[in-house]
């Protein structure tokens, strides 16, 4: 399979567990503030039940904790409870790094501040940074049953003058959960949502042919996430969908009285699929559609250009977004290195990683998975980080299309193709 672990791994003991949307398809709303500002209590107020541990001891929340709900206007959302921004010591520094990463990849923020405490410099600094970032922001003032401290009121008034109003929340009574959810729901119109994988590619009544290999690494009873999402998106757009394994493709394709609008395949069988269909049949892969869905296809196509200048002995980081068992013929640790060694240089040094190495340099190259278990915001943040370091990056589907001689064919069907491709440079 293209990325064998990319299934919905979220587990909920409740009866509706099978109906949960994956975290990668849930907008991330990060709750942030000082230690003991009432962040965890606020989460409990939002959910109207005990979902986060609450204590008067500063620093109770260490690693980010995620809780999911459906929110009007947003659909599935994941609320992330974070460590206090005034955390201390070496462990505190590491916790703040995690909080910073979550803020950078969030769809919206809830800034929590206590009514009965004067504003701290760290609060003013972070909230100004969040305002400058332009993402939807809610200011929640906890301990709403107490009088607002004088300096805090002046600070709140100054923020209101900038257009940021606040919601008073009494976490003791939890009566303000509905109002806070209402305010958050109203912000959905300012949020940026991911498009579907088939956005701009198909119309009602179109016939799509999906090629879905089933190998030993495939999870029993499940399809991988890109396949599931593509099927659902096709059905939402009132398309007809035929799903076959690669060995059934040849006969299935020739059984149609009218050929499909589009063939979408697992990238690992690009070569066989191309051989079994018409040369001018529109063809792409799930991985390429997800590179586009996450909003960074242009930079990933650009990354292919570094292959021609890659130095023998250089490092290739094959990057995965999720953890899974690697089989004997794993795409990241076996198939991509094999093709790279044959087509680029046999002397490359490969490392399969799940986070950015600290010693990565512009002489290296990253080949990233489809990112289906990351949100678009998280993928964008990762690619922007790599770009800022001058490190070229492409993805599995684009690399495999290039390796099988299927570029530009695999992206020609995309509306943005004319600005993506320069035949003389790849």
3D structure, described in words:
This protein has 426 residues and is an alpha/beta fold. Helices cover 34% and strands 17% of the residues. It is built from 15 helices and 14 strands. It has helices at residues 39-47, 89-104, 121-133, 150-161, 177-186, 225-236, 249-255, 270-276, 286-293, 297-303, 331-343, 376-388, 396-403, 409-412, 417-420, and strands spanning 27-33, 65-71, 75-81, 108-114, 137-142, 166-168, 207-211, 240-244, 262-265, 283-285, 315-319, 349-353, 365-368, 393-395. Strands 2-3-1-4-5-6 form a six-stranded mixed beta sheet, with helices on both faces. A four-stranded parallel beta sheet has the order 8-7-9-10, with helices on both faces. Strand 2 and strand 3 form a beta hairpin. Helix 1 packs across helix 5 (177-186). It is globular, with a radius of gyration of 24 Å. Residues 1-19 have low confidence and may be disordered.
Low-confidence parts: 1-19
Strand content: 15-25%
Instruction: Specify the overall morphology.
Output: globular
Residue-averaged pLDDT: 86
Head-to-tail CA distance between termini: 27 Å
Q: Largest beta sheet, briefly?
A: 6 strands, mixed
Radius of gyration, Cα only, in angstroms? 24 Å
Helix share bin: 25-40%
Which sequence of SSEs, written as H and E, runs from N to C?
A: EHEEHEHEHEHEHEHEHEHHEHEEHEHHH
**How is the largest sheet built, in terms of strand order?**
2-3-1-4-5-6
Number of strands: 14
Counting H and I runs of at least 4 residues, what is the number of helices?
Answer: 15
């Amino acid at each position: 399979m293209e990325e064998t672990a990319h299934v919905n791994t979220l587990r909920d003991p409740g009866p509706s567990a099978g109906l949960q949307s994956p975290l990668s398809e849930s907008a991330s709303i990060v709750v942030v503030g000082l230690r003991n500002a009432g962040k965890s209590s606020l989460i409990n107020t939002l959910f109207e039940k005990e979902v986060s541990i609450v204590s008067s001891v500063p620093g109770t929340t260490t690693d980010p904790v995620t809780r999911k709900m459906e929110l009007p206007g947003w659909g599935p959302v994941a609320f992330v409870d974070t460590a206090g921004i005034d955390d201390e010591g070496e462990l505190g520094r590491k916790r703040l790094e995690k909080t910073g990463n979550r803020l950078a990849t969030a769809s919206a923020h809830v800034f929590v501040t206590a009514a009965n405490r004067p504003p701290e410099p760290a609060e003013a600094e972070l909230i100004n940074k969040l305002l400058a970032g332009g993402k939807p922001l809610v200011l929640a003032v906890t301990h709403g049953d107490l009088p607002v401290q004088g300096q805090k009121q002046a600070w709140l008034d100054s923020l209101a003058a900038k257009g940021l109003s606040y919601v008073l929340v009494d976490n003791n009574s939890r009566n303000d959960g509905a109002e806070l959810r209402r305010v958050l729901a109203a912000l959905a119109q300012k949020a940026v949502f991911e498009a579907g994988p088939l956005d701009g590619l198909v119309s009602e009544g179109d016939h799509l042919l999906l090629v879905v290999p089933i190998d030993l690494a495939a999870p029993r009873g499940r399809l991988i996430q890109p396949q599931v999402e593509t099927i659902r998106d096709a059905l939402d757009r009132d398309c007809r969908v035929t799903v076959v394994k690669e060995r059934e493709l040849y006969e299935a394709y020739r059984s149609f009285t009218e050929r499909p609008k589009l063939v979408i395949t697992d990238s690992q069988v690009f070569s066989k699929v191309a051989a079994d269909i018409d040369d001018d049949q529109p063809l792409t892969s799930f991985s390429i559609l997800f590179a586009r869905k996450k909003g960074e296809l242009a930079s990933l196509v650009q990354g292919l250009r570094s292959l021609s200048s890659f130095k023998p002995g250089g490092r290739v980081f094959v990057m995965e977004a999720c953890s899974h068992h690697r089989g004997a013929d794993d795409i990241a640790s076996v198939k991509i290195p094999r093709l790279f060694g044959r087509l680029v240089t046999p002397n490359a040094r490969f490392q399969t990683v799940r986070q950015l190495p600290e010693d990565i340099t512009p002489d290296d190259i990253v080949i990233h998975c489809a990112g289906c278990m990351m949100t678009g915001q998280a993928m964008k943040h990762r690619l922007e980080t790599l770009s800022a370091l001058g490190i070229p990056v492409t993805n599995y589907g684009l690399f495999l299309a290039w390796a099988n001689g299927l570029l530009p064919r695999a992206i020609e069907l995309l509306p943005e193709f004319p600005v993506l491709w320069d035949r003389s440079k790849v």
